[in-house]
Amino acid sequence: MSKMTIQTDGDKHVVVTRRFAAPPEAVYRAHTEPRLIQKWLLGPDGWTMPVCVNEARPGGKIRYEWTDGKGGGFHLTGEYLELVPFSRIVHVERMHLPDPTPDNHVEARFEQDATGTLMTMRMTLPDAETRAAMLATGMEQGMEASYARLEAII
Amino acid sequence: MPNLDTAFSALADPTRRAILARLASGEATVMELAEPFEITQPAISRHLKVLEGAGLIARRIQGTRRPCRLAPDGVAEIDQWLAMLRDALAKNYDRLDEVLAAMKPEEREDVR
User: Based on C-alpha coordinates, what's the Rg of chain B?
Assistant: First the structure.
């Protein structure tokens, strides 16, 4: 099913859209409640998120720690700027690899549509170079997942 | 092999993206490329220089003209890059679909 789009916009934005077969309230909760976040925000197969701090209020802290169960891992920290239940979340985040990456400003909108929810996530990076680096990180994760699938086949 | 940082910087400009879109339909000269834009040929030439430096277009010499075309390798690499990020995100959202499906009964209980 090809229901996700990802596009670069201008010189420092990345815009992701995705439809979900659930009401905005459920999608919003899946983005703000740790016990739900830990079930899906995992990246490649085999990774887990043993630590998930998510204080869903303006100024609240975010801390996600991922591990591959084989000694590899990294974490993300962030702060909430604005929350409008169940339609809008604005936060800043950075990865620690282990040096912190420049801040990624993320605005997620959840809109009711005929079949459920349309999510529009707009990421704003400080500049074109940072965006390129972030996309490269995504590439590494994608490749990791590809290798994992390959291992499962051979 | 194009440098991806340079390639993304090159793509940051709307005129350069429009030039690439035009070249996707075939080779063109500077004059042909300048036509749809309200900017001078030297300005177009500067944009072409950036695109060429980023490995996104190639130029050949034909008499006094230097027609431009897309460099397939450069464009393909950017496509591939976005495709890989798409894969990583898509996997998360497929999992989220399952989480949302599991939440539904619980929500119905909440309503009662």
Answer: 22
**Domain extents in chain A:** 4-153
Which tokens belong to A64?
């996600």
Query: Mean pLDDT highest for which of B16-20, B83-87, B99-103?
Result: B99-103
CATH class of A4-153: alpha beta
Domains along the sequence of chain B with CATH:
4-111 (1.10.10.10)
User: CB count, 10 Å around CB of B14?
Assistant: 10
Residues paired with A66 in a beta bridge: A74
Tokens representing residue A94 in the block: 């950075």
pLDDT, tens digit (0-9, with 9 covering 90-100), for B66-84: 899 888 777 666 666 566 6
The pTM of the full predicted model, rounded to 2 decimals, is: 0.64
How far does the CA of residue A36 sit from the closest CA of chain B (Å)?
7
Chain A interface includes B99 (CB < 8 A): yes
User: What is the rounded distance in angstroms from the CA atom of residue A41 to the CA atom of residue A30?
Assistant: 10
Chain B residue with CA closest to A26: the answer is B100
